[in-house]
Request: fold
Amino acid sequence: MPIDQVSVVRMCGACRFEIEVITVKKDNMRLFVDDKVWCEICQSEQPEVRDVAGRLETIRTEQANYPVSPTSGPPVLTRNDGG
Reply:
């Protein structure tokens, strides 16, 4: 059965404070809006930012499972005895 509902997080554009999570149909999903929203942290109207719920956590989990590049870790010292 296809997923037709998506959870969207509404956040403050200045401090990224999570205002609410809404569930919308995929067909009606809008991530780019020009609306302003009241932020309790900033105590002012700020631009609204929307993102799919759980997206950043999924990206972090995936990146943590990437293999480590030999050049990104500490240098590996080898001994060259010439023989």
Summary: The radius of gyration is 22 Å. The beta strands are 5-12, 18-25, 36-39, 44-52. The first strand starts at residue 5 and ends at 12.
